[in-house]
Amino acid sequence: MPQPTDIQLVDRLKSGDFKAFEAIFNAWWEELFVYAARVLESQADAQDLVQDLFTSIWERRDHLELQTDIQYYLFSAIRKLILRRFRDQGLKEKHLEKFIEYSDLRTALSQVSIEQKDLLRHFHNDLRQLPEKERQVFEWYHFDELSIREIAARSGTAEQTVRNQLGNAYKKARPMLHRLLLFI
């Protein structure tokens, strides 16, 4: 009995003939596998893709329209699956790298934020050791960013008095500032 042609096998496959499907599978799976394994550099991935290809063919058998020889169709289909695999893996790796990068960045920023808050808390505690007026002038000048003139108006003192209080605060706060700068 003569071997059926590819066209006959495809026609029988379309009508649900599992024997025709097996004949196509047995005729082409090894060449497709070797090709995919060489390109993917993974026998397991190649086996998965060839299996996916033939599963898809069986599931779509009713709607299968071949405009070319079965060999060209199969190799074209496996190439598309390989390209999709590369694309998907590339996107996953890219997103994973971004996730790790942002996760590391977020962790680093959180750590810096915690350290800064801790340093500022210590610095504010140290500032409490200054005399009240000097501490207030220092805070208004550095934290509230008020000018000497604005501080003088707010405190009801002369601008020179504010400068003197700020100078005294600097002298007393210098050790605190050095300690703060060592950790930044």
Commentary on this structure:
The chain has 7 helices and no strands. With 184 residues, it is mainly α. The protein is rod-shaped and about 115 Å long. The protein starts with 5 loop residues before the first helix and ends with a helix.
In percent, how much strand structure appears in the residues? under 5%
Along the chain, the helix and strand elements come as: HHHHHHH
Largest sheet: none
> In which range does the helix fraction lie?
over 70%
Radius of gyration of CA atoms, rounded to a whole number: 38 Å
Low-confidence stretches: none
Separation of the first and last Cα atoms: 87 Å
Q: Based on CA inertia axes, which overall geometry fits?
A: rod-shaped
Q: Tell how many strands the DSSP assignment holds.
A: 0
> Which class do the helix and strand fractions yield?
mainly alpha
Individual helix count: 7
